[in-house]
Amino acid sequence: MTAIALTIAGSDSGGGAGIQADIKTFSALGVYGTSVLTAITAQNTLGVTAIENLSPGIIRAQIDAVLSDIAVGAIKIGMVSTVETIGTIAEALIRWQRQAVVDPVMVATSGDPLLQPEAVEALRAQLLPLASVLTPNLPEAALLTGTSVAETEREMAMQAEMLLKLGPAAVLIKGGHGHTSLSTDLLFDGTSVTRFDGPRLATTHDHGTGCTLAAAIAGGLAKGLDLQTAIGEAKEYLTAAMAAADGLNVGRGRGPVHH
Ligand code: PLP
Fold it and tell me: Superkingdom of the source (predicted)?
């Protein structure tokens, strides 16, 4: 049987991140992708020029339409924009009870904000407790814990401990924004720590990296992989997509990774 995953995220008209990156990732991994749009961004490789957040009613209707009919094995949650969107998704997740990879998206690769400042607390209080795994990068982990950006694995571990107290079953802190020679992601589940080492790649075409990793993890979970294996395979997929990014040549700005 084909594994099925769902992405709940924003649309990136430039095709590099958000819903578009997620569906490309699912397809590349042999997973059937379904999607619930939370927001529409007018965006290219240079930046975001407009955002329209969709209403709670249409977000709820999309989730119910997909999950009442289609056997979704795991959900990826990305751009959630507003307090109302977060409440709607949390309520639906409690009703539908699925494994959820929560990627706490806050800014676009271009630096444009994708989460309203007043929604950070709702994300912490309502979505984090429902996550099978939370996937912050270093700046997101710092913002969610009210600490400064971690520079050592010890500091990443302290932030993971604080985040686990908010309720996710596991936290994957991604080292991609760090300055060491390896890009190491650390998975904390409250009992053990698992390392995922990858090469630090020189490309500036890294648009959609966070989305791609989270979608690949959700795809792996939908296939029935355990979390460690799903993350290991997702990191391999992302590393290959980043290594091929310079050959893609899309747009004049910070381009997308190659699916
Ligand atoms: N979701 C949407 C709709 C976006 O446009 C972006 C970035 O521009 C993101 C998520 C996060 O992107 P990344 O995967 O590069 O962290």
Answer: Bacteria
